Amino acid sequence: MSGVSLNGTRLVQILVGLRAPDKPLPQLNLPEGRASAGRFSERLGQLIDFSDSIAISEAHGTGPARAFQAGTASTEDITGEFQRVRDSIARSVTRSCTPGGGPSRVKLPLRSDLDFKEPAAAAGPYLKFYSAQQREIAHRVHNLTARIRQDVAGLSPAMARLVAVDTALGNTLAAHTRQYLAEIPALLARHFEQVRRDNPGLPEAVLEQFCAQLRELLLAELETRLLPALGLIEAINENSDRKSYE
Question: Whole-prediction pTM value?
Answer without folding.
Answer: 0.77
